[in-house]
């Protein structure tokens, strides 16, 4: 039986300053799986992730053609269409960057920030969601007694798990991760790899990675981005 698909990319063409990065890309991503994207530096891996959550749109010399569909509540939704607002899209499609980027505030406030943006005001509900997301990110035991300390007091690996937890607090269905372990030591990276595998129960994950050993440990599918486009590894 075919695996359920979560993301469909249709005839996608993208350029910066009229220089194409991708042309006529067609791809599908399996639900509840980790798809790794590998490929040479500068080929467009980060750019591709930015097309899946509309993060590229602030750049005036960028142009995109084609469609990106995601399956939400049994319906295919065009992420560039009118049915899904950009804030709603960003809640459904979370993003984690290469370098941990906690906000300059406490661990608790970092976690509460996305909830407050969406108007969640009930303090006990906020606490419940924060606790759940920190547990899902394997961080709760390490921070439960210091939630009001600065997020910058955490180690690099803990900061990256905080960023993953902050993405999870909005209950995303898709998580995009751009080289999430490349700034971490082997031990911290290994914790994050275990965490990503566990998160498949909740999300569909796309992970850009430069490490083939990491890809073979965690990915269900791997795609290589080369000059001709994506090909299975
Ligand atoms: N804002 C921008 N304006 C113009 N060109 C850009 C911009 N961002 C990226 N590019 C170009 O687009 C191409 C793809 O860049 P991108 O960062 O997506 O590659 P990458 O595969 O993620 O690289 P790396 O593995 O080094 O992170 C590169 O040639 C890059 O120079």
TrEMBL record:
Record-linked PANTHER family: ABC TRANSPORTER I FAMILY MEMBER 17
Pfam families: ABC_tran (PF00005)
PROSITE patterns for this protein: ABC_TRANSPORTER_1, ABC_TRANSPORTER_2
GO molecular function, one term: phosphate transmembrane transporter activity
Keywords: ATP-binding, Hydrolase, Nucleotide-binding, Phosphate transport, Transport
UniProt GO BP: phosphate ion transmembrane transport
UniProt cross-references to InterPro entries, sorted A to Z: AAA+_ATPase, ABC_transporter-like_ATP-bd, ABC_transporter-like_CS, P-loop_NTPase, PstB-like
Domain ABC transporter: 7-233
Protein known as: Phosphate import ATP-binding protein PstB
Keyword Magnesium in record: no
Assigned EC number: 3.6.3.27
One GO CC annotation: membrane
